[in-house]
Amino acid sequence: MKRVIVISTSLRNGSNSDMLADQFVEGAKAAGNDVEKISLAGKNIQFCKGCLACQKLGRCVIDDDVSDIMTRVLQADVICWATPIYYYEMSGQMKTLLDRMNPLYTSDYKFRKVYMLSTAAEDEEYTPEKAVKGLQGWVDCFEKAELAGSLFCGGISDPGEASAKETELEEAYEFGRSL
Ligand SMILES: Cc1cc2nc3c(=O)[nH]c(=O)nc-3n(C[C@H](O)[C@H](O)[C@H](O)COP(=O)(O)O)c2cc1C
Asked: What gap in Å lies between CA 98 and CA 40, rounded to an integer?
């Protein structure tokens, strides 16, 4: 049994990427894993100030919802990120959280596999590429971890449209089940 954390970064109701995240959760649960999903909606997440105090203190000096999220990430074996594509990149809130989790860099982190689920209006092969590379850059800083898979679901713009994307929803489920 693995501890799995799924971080859903879209802030809108009826989020398409959140639907993929839910499928990943269901698949991971069906395989007997201990799964927790966190949505960034409603969370207080401030920008990294770049002070690097975390390198001395082992924690961030900003007091907001990130410390609780980071505690959970620290205990997880698997992290799955779900994000809408914004300007061919990951969402700003996802990038902000990645930056804020800088204290993990010097920690005894457990995660070994990282996954990414993304959605966008366009359905081109290149649409998610920069977002995937961005996450790859973060994963590269954690030598014991790898970007184990990414799934893109394009051609969806309005909230809830992902519900018609049976193939991708099934793929997200299988990603979770295969952990
Ligand atoms: C600020 C912003 C930027 C976006 N940029 C892109 C983009 O570069 N390419 C694209 O195909 N869709 C873009 N979209 C559309 C979203 O990726 C799309 O609606 C997606 O399904 C949203 O996922 P969500 O429902 O999980 O938030 C953008 C949407 C917003 C709000």
From this structure: 12
Q: Tens digit of pLDDT for each residue in 169-179?
A: 999 999 999 99
Helix 16-30 × helix 166-177 angle, to 10°: 40
Which of ligand 1's atoms lies nearest the C-alpha of 88? 8
Other C-beta atoms closer than 10 Å to the C-beta of 109 total 19
Q: Are 59 and 29 in contact (CB under 8 A)?
A: no
Strand, coil or helix: 37: strand
Sheet holding 78-84, edge to edge: 34-39, 3-8, 78-84, 113-119, 146-153
Beta strands in the chain (DSSP E): 3-8, 34-39, 78-84, 113-119, 146-153
Residues with CB under 6 A from ligand 1: 10, 12, 15-18, 84-88, 119-122, 127, 156-157, 159
pLDDT tens profile 106-116: 999 999 999 99
Distance from Cα 121 to the centre of ligand 1, integer Å: 6
Rounded Cα gap, residues 58 and 55, in angstroms:
6
